[in-house]
User: What shape does this take?
Amino acid sequence: MPSVFKPKKFNGQPFAYHAELELEIATLTNLGSGLGRVALPGETESKWVIMVPFALPGEHVRVRVFRNHKNFSEADLVAVLTPSPARVAAICPLFGRCGGCQYQHLAYADQLAWKQRQVAELLQHLAGLEFPVAPVIPSPRELGYRSKITPHFNPPREGQPMPVGFLRQGTRFDLLDVAECPIATPAINRRLSAVRADVLARRATFPRGATLLLREAGGEVTTDYDAIVTETVGDLKLRFLARDFFQNNPFILPAFTGYVRDQAAASGARFLVDAYCGSGLFALTAAPAFERVAGIELSASSIAFARENAAANGIANASFQAGDASAIFQGLTFPSADTAVIIDPPRKGCDEAFLTQLFSFGPRAVVYVSCDPATQMRDLRQFLAAGYTLQAVQPFDLFPQTRHLECVLTLVRR
Assistant: This one.
C-alpha cells in the first residue's frame, strides 16, 4: 500500500505525491535509471521526463512518483507490465534495495552495449563531438570480481538492530544490512561473516559513521587499513597500503594497463609522465615501452611504495616524487615533443591549474583514464581547444552489474 504521508517540502507539480503513471521506457541514463516521457495534463505531446531506477528500455511500466524537479520527476518502479527481452533475474536478493548495483536485471552483453552508447552520448552532448566509441572491453568476471569493499554501520541505541552494509537505494543515510555481496570476491564474502559477527559483538565500542575495510590480494583478505598488501598484475607484483587507492577489479588489470601502455607508446614518445600515479600501476606496467618514466602522486605513502615496487620488479628507468599533480612539470627535463602523459584523476576530473600547466608543457600525447566519463568529456573540450586531436575512445568494464566504468581517451597534439 502506498504511504499517504508525504515529505514536508514535497513539490506537488506536476504530479501529486505517489501519483501512479504508466509509461514506456525509452533509454537508460548514465546514472543507470530508465528514462521515459509522459504528456502533462492539457498537453498532447509526451515531453515530461520521468526517471525510473531498475526499468529497462522498451519496457511498459507502472511507476509511482516520489519527487518532482524543475524539468523532470523521479519515480519508483511499481510493476513491469511488458518486460524487455534483455531483462534477467538478479542474482542478489537485495537488488533494488541496495544502492550498490544498478544493472543486475540486465543481461551482461546488454550492459556492455548500453555503456558504450552512454559514452558516445556523453561525448556528443558534453564535448560536442561525434566520434566512434570502441566496444566496451568486458570484465573476465561478471560477479565475484571486486577485491575491496567498505561496509558501513552506525552503532544504535541499546536494544535496537544494527545493519552492517551499504546505503539503501535512493537514500543518503539509511543503511541496508548486507551479509553477502555477489560482486565481491568469494574470499571477501567468506571473511565478511566473521567480521560482521565481531562488529555486532563489539558494537558499543564503535563511533557512529564507522566503516569497515575488507581487501583481498593474493588470496588473502585483510581488514587492517595499515596492512601492506601485494597485487599481481601480469609479471609485476605491486605492494601498497590496504587503505590506499588501487583499482578494485584485478582480473581485468592486465588488459587495462596493457592498453594504456600501448596507446601511450603508439604516439612514438620516448618518455612517459604518469600523473596521479599512486603506487605505480600505470607507470611500472608501461615502463618497458619507454626510455624513462616519471610519476607523481599527492600521497607520500603511495610514492614510497611506487619506488619500492620499481626496485622490487627490477625497473630502473622509473622515478617517482610526491607532490601536487599541478606542479608535475616543474624541473622535468623530458622534451615535450618526445613525451606522453598518462592522467588518471579523481572522479571530479582535472582541475584548471593542472590543465593549464599540462597544455603549457604541451606533450606529444595524453592518455586520459577516467572512472567518470561525464567529467572526462567536460575536460575533453579543453584538450580540443588546446590543439589536441582525439584518436581513440576505449571503455573498460571494471564494474559489472553497476553503472560505473573506466574510459580511456587517446589524445595527440596537432
